[in-house]
Design brief:
By secondary structure, the protein is an all-alpha fold. Helix content is 74%, strand content 0%. The chain is built from 30 helices and no strands. The chain is globular.
């Protein structure tokens, strides 16, 4: 009632006033901070990914999926896997748990196809029409208010569905919407005399039934007409290439995304996909050639796959997106083939050479990385010039620094900042300045300027903590670290930086507290486990180190360095067999891993 609402509003107002008086904030400031926090909780992706850009990217890919799977859809609960495997994501982070398309209507169309989307919209239209009729023509206030309330709840949900999947098909929260729709339809049928009355408002419903004109009964004819139209439509589209693309794409997805298939079943799916996709040509030739390339890639026919990819302008973006996806997840061995495909398919692309150079640098092949990165800058036709050009200069600077050419590295870092305002690797720039000049003054000044320019970015704070620690100003580093942890409570980088300083000072309890807080904050990231393991090794506790290094490997099994650390822990514990196995695993992942080879050679 109005009185109840007024009472709730008064209690909320008193609560807000008391909270703001105690915190020193005005009501407006407090409300603003709460809304900002809610916006952070609802962000799509991670890091600097914006909600709008992330949603726009998912909507674009959902529309593309609807055009590729218009008849059958991709099936319930499959959007994340199918979308990541087949479409380009540059904004949404691979670590983001993308459960749906963040739009009810697109999600329905993607999952169930266009026929399923039309059926859903038909149901919505019927429910809303019947509800509006009850809300406006009901004979009693009870009926009108009941219908109005249900219509309001359904409408709010449908409007919210434009920017999120509030009721995705098959997901548990959707039962609320369907329950409200069912209650509205049941109410309509009760007042129409089609159902017996068994409820508390029976008298009102009976009165409504007596005053309401009989409805025309064309339901069965309407259903029959819809069935005939649907049958004719299916018979018509059965001969169209779009259906062959739809079915061929489904067969390819089965082969790629179902690990439970046997080799024979997988081969049969690939054969069927190839047959259907070739029959679909020339419909959506770019998409069909991209998927035919994926068929050959799954078979291991690399040259045939690249031949198909060379015929489609979609290939470069797709190959780079797949490589970036695996690279950001730490699966470098799975990322490398995609970047190699990109260079082979588009040898005149700066973006392809840039990513190839990054992979070579991360593998320690510095000469190869240097040549690839310089090739990228010489071509200078980046897909995203505002960011990739600066990142290429930065990568080239890191290679020069690894080779000991610190003056060139510092100049390249500064050039990277000049051409790209998004470049934020202050730690690398500061380290290059420190190595070039032989003192920390220039590096510290640079980092303090970065903090003044970007006080909301955590990176320069962490870089300054590390730099102060390197030059021996540990007390100052600890003081800054404590302030940074409080200023950025949702970031693990300050916790790890402060923990490292404590560890070198042999303040082991404080270091462990920082690392464990980082684990609690981000249990899916391996770095905190690695530092807990290092701390255990520092305290001559190899068994504890084995446990934490093993946890890190579970989270990132492609990191060769983690296996090397695990081998060191096993060796310190006297378990030479497991130490040897760990070192060999590290060498399998990275044959150039000198630390693993040295550890293996030192075993008795």
């Amino acid at each position: 009632t109005v009185a109840d609402i007024g009472g709730v509003r008064g209690r909320l107002s008193r609560l807000l006033n008391s909270a703001t008086q105690s915190s020193g904030q005005t009501g407006h400031d407090r409300l603003t901070s709460l809304l900002e926090a809610a916006n952070q909780w609802s962000r799509v992706g991670s890091g600097s990914t914006s909600t709008a850009a992330g949603r726009a990217e998912m909507w674009r890919n959902a529309l593309e999926a609807m055009s590729d799977y218009p008849l059958t859809g991709i099936g319930l609960y499959t959007f994340p896997a199918v979308s990541w495997a087949n479409y380009v994501y540059d904004v949404v982070s691979p670590s983001f748990q993308m459960n749906h398309a963040h739009n009810t209507y697109l999600e329905t169309g993607v999952d169930l196809g266009i026929p399923g989307l039309l059926a859903f919209l038909f149901i919505v239209a019927v429910v809303m029409i019947k509800g509006l009729r009850l809300a406006t023509q009901g004979a009693t206030p009870d009926i009108r208010w009941l219908a109005a309330g249900l219509i309001g709840g359904l409408t709010a949900n449908l409007v919210h569905g434009l920017v999120d999947s509030a009721l995705p098909m098959g997901h548990k929260p959707g039962v609320i919407w369907w329950a409200m729709a069912a209650l509205l339809i049941a109410t309509d049928r009760v007042v129409a005399g089609q159902l017996p009355v068994h409820c508390a408002i029976g008298d009102a419903l009976k009165a409504e039934r007596l005053t309401r004109m009989p409805l025309p009964r064309h339901d069965r004819l309407l259903v029959l007409a819809c069935a005939v139209v649907a049958a004719l439509a299916l018979a018509t589209v059965a001969l169209l290439p779009v259906v062959r693309l739809n079915l061929g794409a489904l067969a390819l997805d089965q082969a790629r995304l179902r690990p439970d298939l046997s080799a024979e079943q997988r081969a049969a799916c690939l054969d069927r996909a190839e047959e259907l996709l070739k029959q679909a040509l020339p419909w959506k030739a770019a998409t069909v050639n991209l998927r035919l390339g994926l068929v050959e890639n799954e078979r291991g026919h690399i040259e045939a796959a690249r031949a198909y990819w060379s015929q489609t302008p979609l290939a470069l973006s797709y190959l780079l997106a797949q490589g970036n996806r695996y690279d950001k997840l730490g699966l470098h061995s799975q990322a490398e083939p995609w970047f190699e495909h990109a260079v082979a398919v588009a040898p005149s692309s700066s973006s392809a050479w840039y990513h190839s150079g990054l992979m070579a640098r991360d593998k320690g092949h510095l000469s190869e990385a240097l040549a690839a990165l310089r090739k990228a800058l010489d071509l200078d036709n980046f897909r995203y010039p505002a960011t990739e050009r600066g990142e290429t200069y930065a990568a080239l600077a890191s290679v020069m620094g690894a080779q000991g050419h610190w003056a060139e590295a510092a100049a390249l870092y500064q050039q990277a900042e000049t051409v790209s305002s998004l470049f934020l690797q202050q730690a690398d720039v500061a380290w290059a300045l420190y190595q070039r000049d032989g003192n920390a003054d220039a590096a510290e000044d640079y980092l303090r300027q970065s903090i003044r320019k970007m006080p909301q970015q955590v990176e320069p704070y962490v870089a300054l903590i590390d730099m102060l620690h390197v030059v021996g100003h540990d007390d100052e580093a600890i003081e800054l670290g404590k302030k940074t942890v409080l200023q950025f409570p949702d970031e693990i980088a300050p916790l790890l930086a402060l923990g490292r300083v404590y560890m070198t000072q042999r303040a082991y309890p404080q270091a462990e507290a920082m690392f464990r807080q980082a684990v609690t904050l981000r249990p899916s990231l391996p770095e905190a486990y690695v530092w807990l393991g290092r701390l255990a090794m520092e305290q001559q506790q190899p068994r504890g180190a084995i446990t934490t290094f093993t946890e890190a490997i579970k989270l990132s099994p492609e990191q060769a360095d983690y296996y090397t650390l695990l081998g060191d822990a096993y060796q310190a514990a006297g378990d030479t067999a497991n130490a040897a196995e760990s070192y060999r695993k590290a060498l399998d992942l990275d044959p150039q891993n000198a630390a693993a080879q040295r550890g293996l050679d030192n075993l008795p």
